[in-house]
Fold this sequence. Notes:
By secondary structure, this protein is mainly alpha-helical. It folds into 2 domains: 14-387, no CATH class; 462-496, no CATH class. It has helices at residues 3-12, 22-50, 55-78, 98-105, 110-130, 134-137, 143-166, 186-204, 212-226, 256-284, 290-306, 319-328, 333-347, 350-357, 361-384, 393-409, 419-425, 428-445; strands spanning 91-93, 170-173, 176-179, 315-317, 462-467, 470-473, 478-479, 495-496. It has a 4-stranded antiparallel β-sheet with strand order 7-6-5-8, with no helix packed on it. Helix 2 crosses helix 13. This is Xanthine permease.
Amino acid sequence: MSTEQATSTEQALRPEDERLGIGPTIGYGVQHILAMFGGVIAVPIIIGGAAGLTPAQSAVLVASGLFISGLATLLQTLGLPFFGSQLPLVQGTSFASVSTMIAIVGDDGTDGLRTVYGAVIVAAAAGLLITPFFARVVRLFPPVVTGSIITVIGLSLMPVATGWITGRETVTVGGATVPNPEFAALPSIALAGFTFLVVVVAGKIAVLSRLSVLLGLLVGTVVALVAGLSEFSGVGGASVAALPAPFAFGTPLFTVGATVSMVIVVLVIMVETTADILAVGEVVETRVDARRVGDGLRADMAASVVAPVFNSFPATAFAQNVGLVALTGIRSRFAVAAGGLLLLVLGLSPMASAVFSAIPQPVLGGAGIVLFGTVAASGIRTLAAVEYRGTNNMVIVAASVAFGLVPVVSPDFWANFPDWFATIFHSGISSAAIVAVLLNLFFNVFAPGRPSAPSVVAAGPAVLVQTGEIRILASGEVLGPESYEPVTAKPGTQVRDD
């Protein structure tokens, strides 16, 4: 058998190339889209709210997000030469970019949105160029760095969820700013709590767990309609089908500070996509080499370059769909491609997008608490695999999370700094990424090794009491002899568990 024939046979036998028939392919494709739908519409709704867009303008963002996600999914699954990993990966709008984009938008409305688009175009183009060299860059993002960043992403989005529930503290009436009488209204909080309860209960039921967020949005919206807390009057005026208008909010604006912030975000997105490509390769049990990773990243970045043209934001592989592949055992990339085609069709229907844009904000907030909390929990899970004993990794996590939360707890902290600096550090994810990368270089790269006596911050928990072979930690945890290395100490002696 020739080399060419062997290669052809190997490709034909790839698990991801399995064809399931039209019915199952469409069915499993719909399932993939339902599993990620809440995430793909949440980002444009968040950014639309931050920019103060009207419901009609927010509907444009939602439609554009669906359209780009569909195109990106088709490119990633079906592939073109040098573009697309040809793996069952769903592409959607990245949550990693949300806090940075909110910081860039600021109080500038649609001009802030145009600045976001300019930053995304430049940053994604830079990501596309560095893809062949990304193996060197990715080493700057070990789990201690990525875990810290992902944790900050989730935590920094929590104010967005609570803001959806309570509404704005002030409103403008006749040109004057006055307190909002509907701020933190009990009906809104009750609606959010009910939505949260639906998401949690659905997550407990195995057959519904993957659809829990979507079910929460659906049931919460129905209850809001019955209670008179929502209306869909704008849906009837939307057209059934229409192509997304390029640059619907104006041509992009380019600033240095916004671009630097977005470059950091793009690097994080590339790390996430690389991890998802490798993870889905293991789940599918197929070969994933450096070239395939590169093709997947190029598809990711190419979609992100095109996204602002059609009023959307950076794309990335959705990790929840990797879990769905593992759960269902359906490994066909063509099933995911069918889901991408569905996303594309939905993106071409302003009426469908208007329906999703009309979901009441308290409903979004109730689901958002779980959704954003899950992002933070994913970061904590990554950090759980980091080695802390005998290292200064605890310092890296502590400092990067603290810097990442500064803009959350004190939004005006950097107000007196230069504009370019304030734009970068006003984003929690940018702050966390810069601090985490620099400290990781300082502690683990420039002077690698395990210090014999790490700083007091990095040290382990104190041992309050040791009696015989039993230790009682400051946390209250009791350790038996199998849990630690015995040390010589008199009963009642206070020692450190370093």
